[in-house]
Automatic annotation (TrEMBL):
Binding positions for Zn(2+) per the UniProt entry: H86, H88, H256, D331
Organism, scientific name: Paenibacillus allorhizoplanae
The protein's enzyme class: hydrolase
Binding site residues for Fe(3+): H86, H88, H256, D331
Annotated function: Catalyzes the hydrolytic cleavage of the carbon-nitrogen bond in imidazolone-5-propanoate to yield N-formimidoyl-L-glutamate. It is the third step in the universal histidine degradation pathway.
Official protein name in the record: Imidazolonepropionase
GO MF term (any one): imidazolonepropionase activity
Length: 427
C-alpha cells in the first residue's frame, strides 16, 4: 500500500451501504443491490477512500498504518453522500402568491400564460444583483447540505438575456468554489421564451445558438445544456436545434421532457443521446423505450408532481421494468418544487412512484452521479473515490423514507472533512 498514513478512520458503523458493484448506471433488479455491510468501516486519506468494508477487512488492509483521527459512527447507518441531479438553485424572488391560484384549480401552464410561473422569476432574477443571488442560493445550498446532499446540479434559465444568464452561472461557479457542496453547472437559457420575444420564438432560438451558447462555452461556465421541451415553451423541432448546436460546441445534453404533455421530448432525448431526460410524467411507452435504447437516464422529480397536485406521476416502475436507469431529484425551484429536501423526495419516491427504499437510495447516489457525469468520482463508497458520506440517525435504510418530514442526518463528510456534525453545519 502506497499510503503512509490514514487521515480518518470511520468505524463502528451499524450498516454501511457502499453501492459498489457496477460501473454503469443501475437498471432493473440492479437498482435493489445496495451492497450493505454490517459493522463497517471506511479509511480515508487526502479526501479519498483508501479502504471500505467490514471493520475486520479494513483494519487488515490498512495494517500498521498510523491513523490520525478516528470517528465513532455509534452503530448508525452510513451511505454515500446524496446527489441532487436537477436543481434551479440560483434565482431571485419566490412565488408563494401562486399557491392560492393552484388551490383554485389553475394549472402550471395557465399560471404561465398569465405571466406568472417562470416569467415571474425571470423578472425577479433580472432585478437581483449578483451578490443577492449568491446569498439566497447559499442559504438553499446550506439546507441541502444539512439534509445530506454533497453534490448538486444547478441550472441557469431565469435570466434569458446573455448577461443575466452569465450572472446566474457566475454565482454557481463562485458557490462551487466556496461551498462544501460540489456544483455541476447547466446552461438552460432555453427555459422559456422571454416576454420580449413573445411570438418570435425562432429569433430567440437563434440568439441562444449564435450568442449565448458560444459565450457560455468561451467562459467555461457550464458543462451541460438543457432545454424545456414542452407545449407552449420549446417545440421538439426548436429543442433539437438548440441541442444540436450545444452538442457541436461540446456541451453534454439534458432535456426537460414531457412534463405536462407527451409531445415527444423523451423520443428526442433518445435521438440526441442526452445524458438524462428530466420529469417524464407524461412520457409515452415509445419515448421511454427510445431512452432505454440510447442509454439515457430518467431523472424523476416526484416533489414537482406532488406540489402541482397532478393526478399522474412519472412511471418509475415501468422505467425499471424496461431497463431504464432511474435517478431522483428535488427539482428545487421557486415555483413547481420549492423544497431543498432530498429526504422528502426519497419518501415520495416510495409512496408516489412505488420504488423500494433500496431503489430510492440507488436513485439519489450512483444513478444520480451518472446523470451528471460524475460517477467515476462520487456516488458510491469504494477505494479511489471521493470520501463523501452521510451518517444518519437511523439503524437501517427503510427508516429514512418511512419516518418522513424530519431530517435524519447526524453527520456529513465531504472529501473526508466533517461539514455537518450532530445535525449542525460546521463549515
Amino acid at each position: 500500500m502506497e499510503n503512509n498514513r490514514i487521515d480518518l478512520l470511520i468505524h463502528n458503523i451499524g450498516t454501511l451501504i457502499t453501492m459498489q458493484g457496477t460501473q454503469e448506471p443501475r437498471r432493473g433488479d440492479e437498482m435493489s443491490e445496495v451492497a450493505a455491510v454490517r459493522r463497517g468501516s471506511v479509511a480515508i486519506t487526502d479526501g479519498i477512500i483508501i479502504a471500505v468494508g467490514t471493520e475486520e477487512e479494513v483494519l487488515a488492509q490498512i495494517a500498521e498504518l498510523p491513523v490520525t483521527h478516528k470517528h465513532d459512527a455509534e452503530g448508525k447507518l452510513v451511505t454515500p453522500g446524496l446527489i441532487d441531479p436537477h436543481t434551479h438553485l440560483v434565482h431571485g424572488g419566490s412565488r408563494e402568491n401562486e399557491l392560492a391560484l393552484k388551490l383554485k384549480g389553475a394549472s402550471y401552464l395557465e399560471i404561465l400564460a398569465q405571466g406568472g410561473g417562470i416569467l415571474s422569476t425571470v423578472r425577479s432574477t433580472r432585478q437581483a444583483s449578483e451578490e443577492e443571488l449568491y446569498v439566497k442560493a447559499k442559504k438553499s445550498l446550506d439546507t441541502m447540505l444539512s439534509y445530506g446532499v454533497t453534490t448538486a446540479e444547478a441550472k441557469s434559465g431565469y435570466g434569458l438575456t446573455l448577461e443575466d444568464e452569465l450572472k446566474q452561472l457566475r454565482v454557481t461557479r463562485k458557490l462551487d468554489q466556496e461551498h462544501p457542496v460540489d456544483l455541476v453547472s447547466t446552461f438552460m437559457g432555453a427555459h422559456m421564451v422571454p416576454e420580449e420575444y413573445k411570438g418570435r420564438s425562432q429569433e430567440f432560438v437563434q440568439l441562444l445558438i449564435e450568442e449565448m451558447l458560444p459565450e457560455v462555452k468561451r467562459q467555461g461556465l457550464a458543462e451541460f445544456c438543457d432545454v424545456f421541451c414542452e407545449h407552449g415553451v420549446f417545440s421538439v423541432e426548436e429543442s433539437e436545434q438548440i441541442l444540436l448546436a450545444a452538442k457541436a460546441m461540446g456541451f453534454g445534453l439534458k432535456i426537460h421532457a414531457d412534463e405536462i404533455e407527451p409531445i415527444g421530448g423523451a423520443q428526442l432525448a433518445g435521438k440526441m443521446g442526452c445524458i438524462s431526460a428530466e420529469h417524464l410524467i407524461a412520457a409515452s411507452d415509445e419515448g421511454l423505450e427510445a431512452m432505454q435504447r440510447a442509454g439515457v437516464i430518467a431523472v424523476c422529480l416526484p416533489a414537482t408532481s406532488f406540489n402541482l397536485r397532478l393526478k399522474h406521476h412519472a412511471r418509475a416502475r415501468k422505467m425499471i421494468e424496461i431497463g431504464l436507469p432511474v435517478a431522483l431529484s428535488t427539482d428545487y425551484n421557486p415555483g413547481s418544487s420549492p423544497t431543498e429536501s432530498i429526504q422528502l423526495v426519497m419518501t415520495l419516491g416510495c409512496l408516489n412512484l412505488g420504488l423500494t427504499p433500496e431503489e430510492v437510495l440507488t436513485a439519489v447516489t450512483i444513478n444520480a452521479a451518472h446523470a451528471i457525469g460524475k460517477a467515476d468520482t462520487i456516488g458510491s463508497l469504494e477505494a479511489g473515490k471521493q470520501a463523501d458520506l452521510v451518517i444518519f440517525n437511523a439503524e437501517n435504510l427503510a427508516y429514512l423514507p418511512y419516518h418522513f418530514g424530519i431530517n435524519h442526518v447526524h453527520s456529513v463528510f465531504k472529501q473526508g472533512k466533517m461539514v455537518v456534525s450532530d445535525g449542525n453545519l460546521i463549515h
